[in-house]
Design goal:
97 residues; Helix Hairpins; mainly alpha; T7SS_ESAT-6-like; ESAT-6-like protein; 2 helices; 86% helix
Length: 97
């Protein structure tokens, strides 16, 4: 049941932003490691397996680019929301003076 209240914890919002950045970077590192390993093996592959891997890599690269964009947008929106809440909080405090 809604109480009609909004409670904002600025440090939690900042922690969320940091977590989004960290997870995005960790995923990218793992993908970079996988690609480096695959590139080392690439010259030894022939036939259907090589083509199947190339197609899978193209799909995951596109999906990862989309995910990074979503994570970046989410991080930015969380930051903007925190700033708006803080600005509103300061404005309300000024009205009390």
């Amino acid at each position: 049941m809604s109480t009609g209240e909004i409670k904002v914890n600025y440090s939690s919002m900042e922690a969320l932003r940091g977590g989004l950045r960290q997870q995005s970077a960790e995923i990218q590192t793992q993908l970079d490691d996988l690609e480096a390993t695959a590139n080392q093996l690439w010259g030894n592959w022939d036939g259907d397996a090589k083509e199947a891997f190339a197609q899978a890599k193209a799909r995951w690269s596109a999906s990862m680019a989309q995910m990074h964009e979503i994570l970046g947008d989410t991080e930015a929106k969380v930051g903007a929301s925190a700033m708006q809440y803080a600005d509103t909080d300061r404005a309300n405090a000024q009205r009390m003076l």
